[in-house]
Amino acid sequence: MTLYRARLVDTPVDPFAGGGLRAEEDGGIVVDEAGVITARGPFAAVRAEHPDEVVIDLPGGMLLPGFVDTHVHFPQVRVIGGLGMPLLDWLDQCALPEEARLADVAYAKGVARDFVTGLVDAGTTSALVFGSHFATAVDSMFAAADVAGLRVTTGLVVSDRSLRPELLSTPDRAYGEARGLAERWHGHGRLRYAVTPRFSFSASDAMLESCAATFKEVQGSWFTSHVNENLFEVAEVRRLFGGTNYVHTYANHGLVDRNSVLAHNVHPVDEELALLASQGASVAHCPTSNSALGSGLFPLRRHLDHGVRVALGSDVGAGTGFSLLKEGLQAYFMQQLLAAEGVALTSAHLLWLATAAGADALGLADEVGDLSVGKQFDAVWVLPQAGNPLDVGLGNARSTLDALAKVFALGTTTDIEGVWVGGDQIAAGRFRRPASR
Ligand code: GUN
Ligand code: ZN
């Protein structure tokens, strides 16, 4: 067993439902050999109960739960930053030419390595990853996540229309390849399978029906896709499906339930929000992507009023990086810009959205999302370099809520000093390894 000493900050209870920050300024956490937190409290009290454990000291900054990214594309890590285009132009000119390159297995392996590095460096410990159109590339993704020790849910991206030909498949082939991937990887270590039609714009009813078969037959699999992202795209989907609402194009095939995460949902009608809420499905809010592509301002208030579960996604590569601190800050900005229609977000809301809400969306809330006894020790040590503006800000913070706001406002991936998944340290920062004594 190991005893960690740190400033602990987490959100065990939803701040949108009356919860708030939980903090232990000089905290202690005991982690057993299985990576499970067995004790937590003021360091002095925990130490008194565990006088013989090795202590890992994490002085300065703060220790947060590992971040949970509910929407991030592995084949797009090398095209982050393609600015200046709306969704369909960006797909044609930026994302899809790169995605076609993943037909080459060696290339895909390199991309998977870059992608995993991006997640780990950002402190992301769990992710719902949009895969590749090529099964061999998805194998590479699963393998890279397995080696890194990340909690990753991913799968084959499928489409049978409207994209460049090398990215298209057929319902039968998609089903066969998906079942093969699920057989090889679903339930292996921390990995799970995600049924992933790219979006209804590029998937016929027959393809969605083949997705439904995999979703039903692979117990515990996840479903993910895009929805209501861009006004032109939304109108096209309505036309293609004879006037059907976008969410309903998936729901009509049984693809919308508690194991479903739909990305964006910037332009929903109330009927869709009601359906998402009644089915217990989640929405991945991707604020930097929505800004970069000019997709729109996310109607968080309407999601909350309808009772739809919402978490954060980086949406790399339309999103501008892996940091969920940056996504949290951008979510805050956009709600501010909505003025009276927006939700006034505190740093507690941002931390919830970046951690526990994501764990909930991915069905991992019993295992991760906060630093409670009984959960896996998935954690991120945020430690700014001495004298940098975040370090100065933390030294002058008026409260824990204020200190955490500074972490969201000023924190970058270079401030991530340590990352743990299930008690295993998977990354150590630039300055030092944590001292043990
Ligand atoms: N809709 C369909 N594919 C994509 C994608 O790769 N990124 C985003 N942001 N939206 C999409
Ligand atoms: Zn996306």
From TrEMBL:
Q: State if Hydrolase is listed as a keyword.
A: yes
Cross-referenced SUPFAM superfamilies: Composite domain of metallo-dependent hydrolases, Metallo-dependent hydrolases
Q: Which cofactor does it need?
A: Zn(2+)
Where does the source fall among the domains of life?
Answer: Bacteria
Keyword Coiled coil on this protein? no
- Which InterPro entries does this entry report, sorted A to Z? Amidohydro-rel (IPR006680), Metal-dep_hydrolase_composite (IPR011059), Metal_Hydrolase (IPR032466), Metallo-dep_hydrolases (IPR051607)
**Amidohydrolase-related domain segment(s):** 62-425
Q: Which UniProt keywords apply?
A: Hydrolase, Metal-binding, Zinc
Q: Which Gene3D superfamilies match?
A: Metal-dependent hydrolases, Urease, subunit C, domain 1
Name the record gives this protein:
Guanine deaminase
Native species:
Pedococcus ginsenosidimutans
State the encoding gene: guaD
